Amino acid sequence: MDKSYEIEFRNDHLHVELREGYRPTRELQDEIWKQVRAGCEENKTRRVLVEGVMPESERPPADVVRAGLKAAEIPDLWLAFSFDDFVPTETTELYETIATSHGVRAKFFDDPTTALNWLRANAPS
């Protein structure tokens, strides 16, 4: 298993931690989404908190669109991102737009507590 991320169920949501060195290759993203889907189904949740380190390089728009569509493969998904020192970019705005236009409730935050509170206040349990 790749050590640049970890996925675990925490009480009422699935937690995905992206660590230093995380590189969002197509293969790694597919593996993560497979595990997220399985974790959501196994734990009967649609709440997912992704936190940690924002990938260093800008991604091509086609990759961002693909990632947003991949998230939409999980029905009724609520997805909160919390990255250290997060500053919105065209890439994060594109991702949020693609994902939400395909039924995912996705939002970016710079604080994990705020992100988790948003999930708990809005997403069904």
Which characteristics define this entry?
125 residues, alpha/beta, Transcription Regulator spoIIAA, 42% helix
Return the average pLDDT rounded to an integer: 91
Helix content: 40-55%
- First-residue to last-residue Cα separation: 29 Å
What summary fits the major beta sheet? 5 strands, mixed
Q: Tell me the CATH architecture.
A: 2-Layer Sandwich
Instruction: Label the overall shape.
Output: globular
Q: Please state roughly what percent of the residues sit in beta strands, choosing from under 5%, 5-15%, 15-25%, 25-35%, 35-45% or over 45%.
A: 15-25%
Q: Given the structure, what is the number of helices?
A: 4
CATH superfamily placement: STAS domain
Radius of gyration: 13 Å
> Stretches where pLDDT falls below 50 for ≥5 residues?
none
Order of helices and strands: EEHEHEHEH
Query: What is the structural class?
Result: alpha/beta
Total of domains? 1
